[in-house]
């Protein structure tokens, strides 16, 4: 990415009369916009009839951007097939688990495994790439848009055949599949590959292994679609980077680790959930995840909102200053681009009530004034571009584990692995500590502390990876119901937590889900979950009133491994995380009052940028590591460069 902060949003000029385009670009320059995404939803106008292309209007759009020094994230328009596609090829439309074929009328109306869809998508991609590969406005290929947001899984016969092919490539034989899925139970043993189907609606629970593998297959199908378009773009326009906008931290239907491995730069979308009490902490989780997906390198925020969205039950508008705080929080956590959906608020269509950089009310508005001020501020922060965030803590997260635990036949439906990971992340946020997210099989060297809030499923290599990290001197804290099953969702026998019994020095005999709080000897409390455990080599640090271990610590090689057998309350969890951070010698980059977010980005030459963002209604004093005191006004943010 260039040595500037990319700033702008989705520009959809096709929604407007051409006479507004010049005005749009003039206002973009006034607001400091230097980058826009174009063409995202333009397939029906670029190819209004099958095989009949019309690029004249889009040529004028691209030329207008180039003439005004505004770069383009040029999208392949394949996320939203036009009406003629569904009319001509109804067999390519998605089918839900009940067997209902869905119809054209929104977006992402296609089966990801459909060869017809892939053919038509690659054809329009080829046309776009051939025409604009040398255009001076082109900066980045924006492939598709939000893969799997609405069609993550299709259950049609085409998908069934593709699923069987995927299974045959992953299992040596049908007997190996039967063993992995445990099909001896409920008389599910398969005698022919043709008998294997997607987990369509059935009278009772679907087979857990079948459901897990179908979610893996479905995610891989989306990745394959991206790779097909990306490889064509690389062939036609070598040297132009490509990305697609993930929804890291919010959309769990596709494996972000697998997707990120194929991107030239990670980009993501993030929207605040109004129902969350502290949505800025959820923002931090998503931003840390995006940075981690890009291997710690800077990433691109492709979309967020200037104010309200249009798809929640109550679409809360942002308070004055919130737009800036949200944007700087993403920048603090590694984004080198701050972009919005969209540039001009739509007059019609399903997203007409989604906020934009240029609101319905025009330029004499709070949003426009904040958008323009942010553009000027980001231009002054160009030096931040390219710097990185160094984290000493990692939280392990794996989509396969989330999918496996999502099966309804669990000991408790209240132990939500994603929410638990976010809760542990929030405890770090409140302590002023920035963390990465990491795959269980990823490189853990360089971290002092690895947290495992809720990793129900872990492979043998993932289990060994954590053991090696601790043996080499690292500290880990493992949450309840972790390490329970292998990669096929088969229980690890011999006592829980099967994968890490030796590492943790604990054996669990039985789970006891709770319907109320449980008191601990320390004075804290747990809820939702408890376990009947005994320490085999671990030291017990806290117990239930009945004496069974609630928190243990075990020496392992040169490091230590802590274990919790209950879902601690927020205060008790904060105390435990503070204790393991102290043991691992993990410290925040500055001292700050509650509600003040402090994150450091650094360059290899030693230059650094300390972001201090005050999410409270009171002025706050932040004390840097060098002892300097900095006042951050209520609702304000400061960037201290040194």
Which terms summarize this structure?
17 helices, nine-stranded parallel beta sheet, 642 residues, Rossmann fold, globular, 3 domains, TIM Barrel, 19% strand, single chain, Immunoglobulin-like, alpha/beta
Describe the protein's architecture and organization.
Substrate binds at residues 107, 145, 311. The active site is at residues 146, 303. It comes from Nonomuraea deserti. With 642 residues, the chain is α/β, with parallel strands linked by helices. The protein has 3 domains: 6-156 and 207-386, TIM Barrel (Alpha-Beta Barrel); 393-584, Rossmann fold (3-Layer(aba) Sandwich), CATH 3.40.50.880; 591-641, Immunoglobulin-like (Sandwich), CATH 2.60.40.1180. 31% of the residues lie in helices and 19% in strands. The strands form 6 sheets. A 9-stranded parallel β-sheet has the order 5-4-3-2-1-9-8-7-6. A hairpin with a 5-residue loop joins β15 (518-519) and β16 (525-527). The two termini are 23 Å apart. The mean pLDDT is 97.
- The CATH architecture of the largest domain can be given as Alpha-Beta Barrel
What count of structural domains? Answer: 3
Cross-sheet strand order for the largest sheet: 5-4-3-2-1-9-8-7-6
Q: Specify the structural class.
A: alpha/beta
By CATH, the topology of the largest domain is TIM Barrel
Based on DSSP secondary structure assignment, what is the total number of beta strands? 27
Q: Helix coverage percent of residues?
A: 25-40%
CATH C-level class of the largest domain is: Alpha Beta
Active site: 146 (proton donor), 303 (nucleophile)
Domain Glycoside hydrolase family 42 N-terminal: 10-379
Keywords: Glycosidase, Hydrolase, Metal-binding, Zinc
Binding site for Zn(2+): 111, 154, 156
């Amino acid at each position: 990415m260039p040595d500037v902060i990319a700033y702008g949003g989705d520009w959809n000029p096709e929604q407007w009369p051409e006479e507004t385009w010049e005005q749009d670009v003039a206002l973009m320059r006034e607001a400091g916009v230097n980058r826009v995404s174009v063409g995202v939803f333009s397939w029906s106008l670029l190819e209004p009839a099958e095989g009949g292309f019309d690029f004249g209007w889009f040529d004028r759009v691209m030329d207008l951007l180039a003439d005004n020094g505004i770069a383009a994230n040029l999208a392949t328009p394949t996320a939203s097939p036009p009406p003629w596609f569904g009319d001509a090829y109804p067999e390519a439309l998605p089918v839900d688990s009940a067997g209902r074929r869905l119809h054209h009328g929104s977006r992402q109306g296609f089966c990801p495994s459909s060869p017809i869809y892939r053919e038509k998508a690659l054809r329009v991609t080829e046309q776009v790439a051939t025409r604009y590969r040398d255009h001076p406005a082109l900066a980045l290929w924006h492939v598709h848009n939000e893969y799997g947001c609405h069609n993550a899984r299709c259950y049609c016969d085409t998908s069934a055949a593709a699923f069987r092919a995927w299974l045959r490539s992953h299992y040596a034989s049908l007997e190996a599949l039967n063993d992995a899925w445990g099909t001896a139970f409920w008389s599910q043993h398969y005698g022919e590959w043709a008998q294997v189907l997607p987990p369509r609606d059935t009278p009772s629970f679907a087979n857990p292994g079948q459901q897990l593998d179908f979610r893996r297959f479905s995610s891989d199908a989306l990745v394959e679609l991206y790779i097909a378009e990306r490889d064509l773009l690389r062939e036609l326009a070598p040297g132009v980077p490509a990305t697609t906008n993930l929804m890291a931290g919010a959309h769990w239907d596709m494996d972000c680790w697998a997707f990120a491995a194929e991107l030239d730069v990670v980009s993501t979308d993030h929207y605040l959930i109004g129902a969350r009490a502290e949505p800025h902490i959820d923002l931090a989780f998503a931003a840390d995840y995006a940075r981690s997906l890009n291997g710690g390198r800077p990433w691109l925020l492709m979309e967020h909102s200037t104010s309200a969205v249009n798809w929640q039950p109550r679409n809360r508008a942002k308070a004055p200053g919130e737009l800036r705080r949200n944007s700087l929080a993403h920048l603090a956590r590694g984004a080198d681009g701050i972009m919005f959906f969209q540039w001009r608020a739509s007059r019609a269509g399903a997203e007409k009530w989604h906020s934009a950089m240029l609101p319905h009310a025009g330029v004499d508005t709070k949003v426009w004034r904040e958008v323009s001020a942010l553009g000027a501020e980001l231009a002054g922060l160009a030096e931040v571009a390219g710097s990185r965030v160094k984290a000493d803590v990692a939280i392990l997260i794996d989509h396969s584990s989330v999918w496996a635990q999502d099966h309804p036949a669990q000991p408790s439906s209240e132990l939500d692995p994603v929410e638990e990971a976010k809760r542990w992340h929030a405890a770090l946020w409140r302590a002023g500590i920035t963390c990465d997210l990491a795959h269980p099989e990823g490189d853990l060297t360089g971290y002092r502390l690895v947290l495992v809030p809720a990793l129900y499923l872990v492979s043998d290599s993932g289990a060994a990876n954590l053991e090696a990290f601790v043996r080499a001197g690292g500290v880990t804290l493992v949450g309840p119901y972790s390490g329970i099953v292998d990669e096929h969702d088969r229980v690890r026998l011999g006592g829980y937590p099967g994968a890490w019994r030796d590492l943790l020095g604990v054996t669990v005999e039985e789970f006891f889900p709770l319907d109320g709080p449980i008191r601990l000897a320390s004075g804290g409390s747990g809820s939702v979950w408890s376990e009947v455990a005994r320490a085999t080599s671990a030291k017990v640090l806290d117990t239930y009133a009945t004496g069974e271990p609630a928190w243990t610590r075990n020496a392992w090689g040169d490091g230590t491994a802590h274990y919790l057998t209950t879902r601690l309350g927020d205060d008790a969890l904060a105390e435990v995380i503070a204790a393991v951070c102290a043991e691992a010698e993990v410290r925040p980059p500055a001292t700050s009052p509650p509600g003040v977010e402090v994150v450091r980005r650094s360059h290899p030459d030693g230059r650094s940028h300390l972001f201090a963002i005050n999410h409270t209604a009171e002025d706050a004093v932040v004390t840097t590591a060098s002892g300097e005191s900095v006042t951050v006004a209520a609702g304000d943010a400061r960037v201290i460069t040194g």
